[in-house]
Amino acid sequence: MILLIDSGNSRIKIGWSLNKNGCIHREPHVKIFDNLNIRSLGQWLSCLPKKPNHALGVNVAGKHRENVIENELNNINCKIEWIVAQTRTSILINEYKNPNQLGADRWAAMLGIVEKQKKIHPPLIVASFGTTTTIDIISPNNIFIGGIILPGSFMMRQSLTNGTANLPMSSGESIDLPLDTINSINSGVSSAQSGALARQCIITFKKYNEFPIIYVTGGLWLELEKETRQLINEIAFKSRSEKKTEIIYENRPVLDGLAIISRNYN
Ligand SMILES: Nc1ncnc2c1ncn2[C@@H]1O[C@H](COP(=O)(O)OP(=O)(O)OP(=O)(O)O)[C@@H](O)[C@H]1O
Ligand SMILES: CC(C)(CO)[C@@H](O)C(=O)NCCC(=O)O
């Protein structure tokens, strides 16, 4: 068993891959730990019925977090290898100016998505709505050509509350014409998030003359889904895209990417 660890800025997600008849695949179960409650990771590890031989991880939550996870794994004699973004693998090329600077979670998620594609596919967008929002574009010949980073919707709401006297913390979906503070904030945050995705779709469409398949993930997608689907359908219609727009939710693309890398460890 190989543990797969996605250490994000809010939560740690742990999956595992198993070798079944010579074929490595990721089990669907995922264990999630809040970053504020990292000690329970040690308890969980010590109670595992089967000890992992190895762990593979991505960590974007700083060196201290890396050390804490390593110590917990050491207690059960499990070594971890932290994955960083590469210049290229057999399925994906990374055009970041400094390839290692690209977040390892973004890299792993893109690997997870590219692996699922048929040989010929449209351009792809991988959008993650978590602590931050990242929206990455992959060309039809599997080159990561660029991406954007913005605060996640929770962080946007927090910044409005923390940076002003009058704006409360809010939650909820957007409406078209808000006439009160809460709805104005909800709609502002939601339009920033869906608007960012729409911008990247337009850029992709202009470059390839083909509408991308959009893969979405992250804890905050649910509250953005309605507005985002509407907006993307509108711009696809205006772009006269021949195909129906596809927005596909992926539960754990980062862990899928790590599972692919884990095939080299058996
Ligand atoms: N079930 C949920 N309901 C409401 N908010 C959630 C839920 N799950 C996660 N969130 C919010 O989503 C954000 C984190 O999302 P997610 O778990 O996808 O990312 P993460 O662990 O921070 O990883 P990353 O750093 O990669 O974004 C936080 O702002 C958190 O408050
Ligand atoms: C953008 C985040 C925070 C998303 O989790 C992470 O991928 C990260 O810390 N990236 C490093 C900077 C970059 O990707 O360019």
Question: What is the CATH-assigned architecture of the largest domain?
Answer: 2-Layer Sandwich
CATH level-4 homologous superfamily of the largest domain: ATPase, nucleotide binding domain
Nearest-integer average pLDDT: 94
- The dominant shape is globular
Number of continuous helical runs: 7
CATH class of the largest domain: Alpha Beta
Classify the secondary structure makeup into a structural class: alpha/beta
- The stretches of 5 or more residues where confidence is low (pLDDT under 50) are none
Strand fraction: 15-25%
The biggest beta sheet reads: 6 strands, mixed
| Number of strand segments | 12
User: Rounded to an integer, what's the Rg over CA atoms?
Assistant: 20 Å
Roughly how much helix do the residues carry, as a percent range? 25-40%
Total domain modules:
2
Distance between the termini: 10 Å
Ligands: adenosine-5'-triphosphate, pantothenoic acid
Write the CATH fold name of the largest domain: Nucleotidyltransferase, domain 5
* Series of secondary-structure elements, N-terminal to C-terminal: EEEEHEHEEHEEEHHEHEH
Enzyme class: transferase
Active site: 105
Keywords: ATP-binding, Coenzyme A biosynthesis, Cytoplasm, Kinase, Nucleotide-binding, Potassium, Transferase
Function: Catalyzes the phosphorylation of pantothenate (Pan), the first step in CoA biosynthesis.
Task: Give the arrangement of secondary structure elements.
Layout: E1 2-7, E2 11-20, E3 23-26, E4 31-34, H1 39-46, E5 54-59, H2 63-74, E6 79-82, E7 93-94, H3 104-115, E8 124-129, E9 132-138, E10 143-151, H4 153-163, H5 181-208, E11 213-217, H6 221-238, E12 247-249, H7 253-262
Parallel strand pairs: 1-5, 5-6, 7-10, 8-11, 11-12
Antiparallel strand pairs: 1-2, 2-3, 2-4, 8-9, 9-10
Helix pairs in contact: 3-7, 4-5, 5-6
Subunit structure: Homodimer.
Pathway: Cofactor biosynthesis; coenzyme A biosynthesis; CoA from (R)-pantothenate: step 1/5
Keywords: ATP-binding, Coenzyme A biosynthesis, Cytoplasm, Kinase, Nucleotide-binding, Potassium, Transferase
